[in-house]
Design a protein that fits this description.
With 380 residues, the chain is α/β, with parallel strands linked by helices. Helices cover 52% and strands 12% of the residues. The chain folds into two domains: 3-155, 3-Layer(aba) Sandwich (Rossmann fold); 183-379, Rossmann fold (3-Layer(aba) Sandwich). Strands 2-1-3-4 form a four-stranded parallel sheet, with helices on both faces. It is globular.
Amino acid sequence: MNSLELLSEFETFLQKKKDTGKKIIAFLGHDNIPIELLEAADFFPLRMIFAGDDQLMNSSNTYLPPSTCSFAQSCIGYFTLTPRTHKFLEYVDYFLLSNHCVSDICVSEIISDVADLKRLDFYVPYYRNENASKYYKIELTNLKNEIEKLTRERIPDYKIRDSIIKQNDFKKVVKDISNLKIKGYEKLKLYQKAMLFGPNVQPELERIVEKHRDHNEINLKEYKNLLLTGCSIFIDDFLIDLIDESGGNIVHFDTWIGHQYYSQIFSQETLEKIQDPYKLLIKRFETNVYGDHCISHSLENQINSIINYINQFKKENPNMEDVAVLNHIIKFCDHFSLFQSTFKQKLQEKGVKVLNLERDYSRAMRGQLRTRIEAFMEMI
């Protein structure tokens, strides 16, 4: 399924949701957003995971300087350009602001204003300590209260817990996708569909997993195997095509569309031990240490996670070349660009080959990106 087919299917899906009275809430937040609380209030959570182009990025210059994250710029473009590139964004009722980064905050404020959408705020602590957990609980409570004011209905705890269990089961299926012996771009498309539709596509993904579970559909020796980290590859982005055309294959997506999403799974023991849904959400926040939204050990945790994966890959594939790392950095994304040199140095000290690939969504960069990727493929 290509991007056009996926987005067309998603538009039909959202239209049906709207026809049944479902409210749509969009957000840019990469992680720690309590999807289960939104679902328990009968909202459908819509993640903004769409890549832009020159027109979308440039359309944001009325509101923000060009030195703003290209992904954030594109999100403004999706709501301000007419006719809209993705018509289903007209179905959005609310916009959730979170503080993953400064750009996310600014863009959420702008989109809420220009698209005349009611804005809800949800601030996430960067630290992991007792005070941070207390603050996260306060934010959960405030968000719940704000939603109840909008819907004029109480959100019962059992609905939140049911949604937690449903989302947890869904993440297990997405994790199963990561173990399939299929091309990286095929995994990415499944991840992207999972992030858009959520548990609504669980039966379809389960059938795909069952179909491919015991089959090696790809000979890894034929490709230069890569671990993608840094910024996610969003829907409509041509980067995955350049990697594939250059003989590369992504075997592991160490991004929030990928490992950082499906790694947040509760064990059955935890679900049975903790009955309070808010305590479960706080527990997940406390243990979510693989993303860049975790100070002060985010870089250390990320590097350890990458090394663990590479070592496991070596163990399972002893006669193959080592996995190299492609650190994907969207231009002006402070979270990743500030640490790219240190990140590369620390991995190289451990014998890992790394390409820091910083770019925006401009089509004019395609040739330059291809050259850099092909040169890295030759090196490894």
